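Lab notebook page, bench 4
Experiment: in silico fold of construct C2
Operator: M.H.
Input chain length: 308 residues
Purpose: comparison with the prior construct
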Amino acid sequence: MSEIPQWKVTQSYVATRCKLGEGPYYNEDRNELRFVDIWNHKLHFVNVEKGPNSLRTIDTGVALGVTADVEGSDLLLTGAKDGLTLFNTETGEHKYLAKFWDHDKDKEHRMRFNDGAVDSKGRFWGGTCNDPKVMEFTPEGVLFRLDPDGSLHSVIEKATIPNGLDWNVRNDTFFWTDSPDKNIYMFDYDHETAKISNRRIFYHVPDEVDAVPDGFAMDEEGCIWSSLHKAGKVIRISPDGNVIGEILLPTRCVTCPTFAGSKIFITSAEEPEPEKYPESARHGGNLFMVDVGVQGRRKNKFRLDKKL
């Protein structure tokens, strides 16, 4: 097999020491990157122009898996532990748009939100999984969709760890990750109705690789950049499903990339075996950055029909 392009990152960009860093999101208007620490209930912000010294952090009050910009508002849409909220980062107030479990307290306790994204019509898609603080992962997860009219829909059930998701450049294919399967799936997608069909495997992490696909980002050429959790790398996957590049990181537990122009920012989690992997532990939970020379696709904003 011919060699593929590699980008090697040897140092952290910001030493945030997250327990579980996730959900990086670039706000182009503010030239600002933000990302969550799910376990420690934190939301970090970095001004991309000013660099690491601009880091600021706020408490989120609850575990957040991901955030998204909201059209016409400074509020953030968040995937919280038990539902989807509008989050005021100035006051710390959460206003629920939808609850996942119809106020089933037991399920609210044992589940949490993981990852999500907004489609071209302003609908938010995101997945829930068992909360590892409470129990082991089981196929109890659900991929939900929140429409601009405020209605919540169950799209895929019996998922284990719903993870990275996005749509192709032509907007006729939906990609979605279920990490323990080691698969990124693809579906036929109707962007007008949000219907998905014809599920099949787009990319499978080889069985001999001790890693799973986590969050991903997509570039303007239609390639997916998928974090391989516990492999210490992000792989670039072409539209036909071939690995055509990789980013090597100094920590194993990379979680999710996002683009800011041609720069990729990558979150990570704490190293679970620090004595066995001391170098990985030194960088675990930090934020990383590398310029890969290709532009990322812009993220869509969530649309809400009713008054905020």
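Observations: The longest helix spans residues 105-110. The first strand starts at residue 6 and ends at 8.
Next step: discuss at group meeting.
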